[in-house]
Amino acid sequence: MRAFERPQAVTIRDVARVAQVSPATVSRVMNRRNSVDPELTRRVQQAAASLGYQPSAIAQGLARGRTGLIAIMVPDLGNPMFQSVLRGISRAAVVEDYRVLVTDSHEMPLEEPLLARETRLRVDGLVLCAPRAHDHELSELAPKLEPFVLVNRRIAGLATSTVSVDYGAGVRAVVAHLTALGHKHVAYLSGPMASVSNQERLSTLHEAARGRFELDVLECGSMHEDGYEVADRALATGATAIIAYNDLVAIGALGKFQQTGVAVPGKVSVVGFDDIPFARYSMPMLTTVAVPQEELGREAWQRLSAMLRHEEPPADVCFTPRLEVRGTTAPLRP
Amino acid sequence: MRAFERPQAVTIRDVARVAQVSPATVSRVMNRRNSVDPELTRRVQQAAASLGYQPSAIAQGLARGRTGLIAIMVPDLGNPMFQSVLRGISRAAVVEDYRVLVTDSHEMPLEEPLLARETRLRVDGLVLCAPRAHDHELSELAPKLEPFVLVNRRIAGLATSTVSVDYGAGVRAVVAHLTALGHKHVAYLSGPMASVSNQERLSTLHEAARGRFELDVLECGSMHEDGYEVADRALATGATAIIAYNDLVAIGALGKFQQTGVAVPGKVSVVGFDDIPFARYSMPMLTTVAVPQEELGREAWQRLSAMLRHEEPPADVCFTPRLEVRGTTAPLRP
DNA sequence: TTGTATGCGTTATCAA
DNA sequence: TTGATAACGCATACAA
């Protein structure tokens, strides 16, 4: 039989024939085994060059039992936060000659397990970035996904490498900041319910707000438009400060306030999360909880890379975010 | 021998043994060949389920001569424009069961050919998004990259599918707009010199400006910071309107003007390219040349998909961008 | 309809 | 050091 796609133009056998050696020797030369006679080495290299030979990655994959590929699954490729993580991973992995496959789960918690498992089949390892699936589903699936690294998510009883952010600390910093500014009524624009980091922000917020200020929570989302649409209602609660699920939402709200002539931070303060590049370019510049996004990606790769080498990965890391006080927060003015 | 990674837990042979059939029959069942006895089909499915069998994608790839993977190469994963194209491709491809591998060429024209070729080895087809490499290098390389689709780039004498944007028309629309507003002196913040679309914008601009207004060109870049840094010098030329290479640069310049108290559009008008999501959320809202970014990705996939099926791809498409007049442009006020 | 045998392109074992 | 040869896991002619 033959593959129905055109078979690879030139194979290791062609090179072997031209160089008058065995395929095994060609393989050795291509893989820089230094146990080949210089003369043969030269012949092989010349033959390979003249034929334009390139080893088949698929065949190598099958023979070696590895693909040289890893995958990252993100909830939404449209979110700058995840783009940055992807960028960090991609740039770190390429140095070690790994390529990155990217899967967008479209914020669909129920489809994630299937998607993850299917993706895993085509690569050597996985990075699950802020997975939305349920704990127990991920736990069950874990053995079939290994090796994998979790970003922005921890799962009780699961001993896999994790790279995360202490959003609780971030929330407390925000609360302290707003309290110091005199705010007594705060609205939280809540992100996707499936987002564990949203849950963390929310619960810490409830806790930290107690006795300090009134807290209203509004269902929102994770994109500009979500913030834009919910902004008015947030203001209508009487809140004088708004904490957004992320920078996108915050900037969306800012847009609406600008349009309707609501002064920021004069009438209402706004805080975001992530510190995406655009946060410095909103007007006023967005006060936000800065998360080292690309570094999250790099750290994730460090761990996955170690696992791929069958080494012990570095210890879990949890970044403490830094509150970037910029222009969208100000003292309460009655 | 054995693969040095743990061999796949369960193979087609294990299923065959449990189901008491031949591996060939298992293969037929897994691939929905409808020539298998219902009883055997049942036995195979049950065996596969109980063993948790998943066919090895690598082995399938080798046997079928295809990987089920495509790749997209972009100059910079940090650019929202390319992110959107990636998103469009990824979402279109997954529907047809293709996964997407992403390669970031770091805006390095010289490394692109190697990167492209190496990437091509691991996938069935390629999308080159705004490649920065030289025409002749791409032409030479073309046979080894096929099938591939070009986005935002056309190469003389190269008969490969192309999805592009008529930036010339976009530039003329901008020029007409600014001229109508009375501007007599315009500065262009030039993008990466290796960017062909930058060259197109530049040459059309020179042409269109002739006899209408004075044109200053400033070397800039493609990111926020580039626009931020060059903004002052652009103003110092005496220009009353600034055309930026893209929205990122425009927004960067806007940020600087905001900081230094330069009124936009009162003192200077600003125009961008692309219409990234953030363009609606700058203040004022950015006047920009809107490019259908995700659609570029979808159209690219349409063509690549056809080529992968050995069908004739749809004709080349060239989008005419639409000028979105928003808040950063205004009549010249002396 | 089912099973046997072969090939996909490489790597790796083992004997020479 | 080199070359047969056997995997790797699957899909598919071909024979039964």
TrEMBL record, chains A, B:
Where the record annotates domain HTH lacI-type, the positions are: 10-64
Q: Does the keyword Transcription regulation apply?
A: yes
Q: Which Gene3D superfamilies match?
A: 3.40.50.2300, lambda repressor-like DNA-binding domains
Can you name one GO molecular function term for this protein?
A: DNA-binding transcription factor activity
Q: Which UniProt keywords apply?
A: DNA-binding, Transcription, Transcription regulation
This protein's superkingdom? Bacteria
Among the Pfam families in the record, one is LacI
Name this polypeptide is given: Transcriptional regulator, LacI family
